[in-house]
Structure prediction request, 138 residues.
Amino acid sequence: MIQVEETEYGYRVVLSGFVCASDVRLWLGECETHLPKTSKHFHVLADLRTLKQLGLDAYPLMCDVQKVYKRYGMERFAVVFSNPMLQNQLLEICKESGVSGSERFFPISHMPDWPVQVANWLLRGEEPVEGFRWESPN
Prediction:
């Protein structure tokens, strides 16, 4: 399931349970309809704490969603997750979508104060103390 809500910084997106391609396709359509009407320069929190699995068929569509967010003004992107098995998949999606560099990952098992660090990143651009981002191996 995917839920999107507007916030003071932009959008909070919650992915929970099992997310398949049809879920992401619907979300992508909503993004393409809604985002052109919004003001530029917003931030996105992807809350994946209750995401069990992202279907392989959803993977390319997740990249498309991130590209749409970026095209319409996303500046900073925070990914909060609890399942360490998703980590490599999330990193690869950010790399392929072109948002690497503007994203930060917050593994909640290592960050008891993740809500504060996420807010600092999204609202002020302050680097998280314990979060991480995808780094190019170059």
